[in-house]
Structures are given as C-alpha cells and as structure tokens.
Amino acid sequence: MRIARFSIDGNVAFGAVEGDGPDGLVLDIIKGIPYADFELSGTKVPLEKVRLLPPVLPNKIVAIGRNYAEHARELGNEVPEAPVAFFKPTTSVIGHGDAVEYPAFSQELHHEAELAVVIGRMCREVPRERVKDVVFGLTCANDITARDVQRRENQWARAKGFDTSCPLGPWVETGTGLAAVAAGLGVQCTVNGEQRQLGTTADMLHSVEDLVVHITEAMTLLPGDVILTGTPAGVGPLSVGDEVAVTIEGIGTLTNKVIKRG
Questions:
Q1: Domain shared by 9 and 103, yes or no
Q2: Would you give the distance in Å from CA 124 to the centre of its chain?
Q3: What is the dihedral of CA 212, 61, 20, 133, to 10 degrees?
Q4: Domain membership of residue 253 as a residue range
Q5: d(CA 167, CA 19)
Q6: Which residues lie closer than 8 Å to 206 by C-beta, 6 or more apart?
Q7: How far does the signal peptide extend, from start to end residue (predicted)?
Q8: Any residues with CB less than 8 A from the CB of 146 and at least 6 apart, and which?
Q9: CA 209 to CA 199: how far, in whole Å?
Q10: If 6 and its partner were Cys, which of 50, 159, 188, 220 is the partner (CB 3.0–4.6 Å)?
C-alpha cells in the first residue's frame, strides 16, 4: 500500500493511494494514523486536487554516508568498515513538489538520490531477525548537500542539515519488503530530464538490517523516524532553476525544483 500525507482545503490527512498510472490516481482518506491499526474511510479525492506533503514528520533523520563503494571512491574517500551515521534536522524536510532553496553560504550544491526507510514502531536494540517488524515502509529521498561546505568543515551539520536539504516522498510504500531491497531496487536521479545517477540497492555496503541494528544499539527510534541509506555514484551539481527527480523502483518519483533562497 502507498500511504501519502496531503493537504486539501486547509486540512491535513493521510490517505491510501489507489491507481496505477499518473492519471486517475485517488486518495482514500485514512481514519486515524498509519502507524497503528487504521481503516479506510471510503472518502476519495483525486491526487491532482491535493498538495502532497512530506509523507512523514520524523522525530529524527539518521543518514548514512558512503554506503556505496563507488560513491565513496568518486569523492576520494576510503570505503568505511562500519556505517558512517549523521543527523539531518527535521527542519530540513520538504515534500514532493516543494522547492529546494539554494543556500547563500554555498556555491556547490549536489544531489544524492537515496532509498529512505521509515520506522513504524518505537524500537531499541533491535535484533536482526526483528528488523522487518519495525520497518513501516520505504520512500524516496534526496540528501541535498553543500559539497564545498562539507569539504571545509569537519562536521556535516551545515552542509547536509540546512533548510530544504531533505526532500522525502512522494509517499511511503509499505508493500516492498527488505528482501526486495537486498535483491536490488533501481535508484535513479535525473536533472532536467538528464540521467545523473543510476544504481541499485543491491550494492549497499551495509543492508537495511545492518543499519537498523547499528543505529538502535545507540538510540531509540520512534514511529515516523527516517533512515537514509546512502547514495550510489554519480552525484553532481545543481543550479537555480534545475528540476531534480529521484526515482526508486517500485516506490515512485520524488521531484523538486531548485530556487534561490530569499
């Protein structure tokens, strides 16, 4: 099931996305919240009549760096033995169709297409065999990065945590399991229709199971929290006016336009 969060006539709701093509998609409004047992209301609205919002409002976003060997190498970094984790703040989150604001303190903004994992229940010290039970679903993400700032600052907080640097969406797919991620979901990024990144989740150095075990050894994850699983090779520059799209096989396409901040 595809679960979207949206606004219509000033109201915010969750809905199940129904339909298979770009035309005629509708949202069946959910009674309650999607992380618990819920019912479909039967009240349906056309997708084209709503504004899609970030599909979740995470308490925290835990991102993983250099989780694809070729991406690590393309930036001149060694391939890490253990997952490299960092945080993106909740204020960095935007949804499908929202604008990425080019920050004034950077002259080198990069796209990073990523599979994002959405947590469905509070969990800590999760054993590997239970990881599938705490994952709510999967969505698309773009770990927008001020690459010049990342190079010159020891911490990545500003380079990867500025406002609008974490597009998520367009919805959460709950039907794609972790076995499909391990087997390989295609990860693609285009800029103005030109392909920039094309990879597969089969090439992740550390699996979703690895990441959840590693992260929850240290901290509690809450419903709606997001794990960004890293980006394949091919990252590159964005300019004001560009339209950047991240497509994950079996999930959907997340599209955002880059504008000048202010």
A1: no
A2: 22
A3: 30
A4: 61-260
A5: 24
A6: 64, 67, 82, 83, 214
A7: none
A8: 103, 105, 106, 108, 109, 110, 158, 159, 160, 162, 165
A9: 19
A10: 50
Residue reference for tokens 């690459």: 147
Amino acid residing at 180: A
Torsion of Cα atoms, 62 then 68 then 69 then 71, to 10°: -90
197 and 116 co-located in one domain:
yes
Residue for token digits 């679903």?
Answer: 137
Whole-number pLDDT of residue 72: 86
Quote the tokens at residue 106: 């950077």
Contact (CB, 8 A) for 249 and 181? no
Kindly state whether residues 152 and 29 are assigned to the same domain. no
Q: Mapping DSSP to helix (H, G, I), strand (E, B) and coil, where does residue 54 land?
A: coil
Asked whether the beta carbons of 201 and 185 are under 8 A apart, the reply is yes
Q: How far apart are CA 249 and CA 244, in angstroms?
A: 17
Residue located via tokens 């004001």 = 240
Phi/psi at 237 (5° precision)? -75, 150
Q: What is the tens place of the pLDDT at every residue in 90-127?
A: 999 999 999 999 999 999 999 999 999 999 999 999 99
Q: Are residues 15 and 86 in the same domain?
A: no
Residue showing tokens 């950077």? 106
71: confidence class by pLDDT, cuts 50, 70, 90: very high
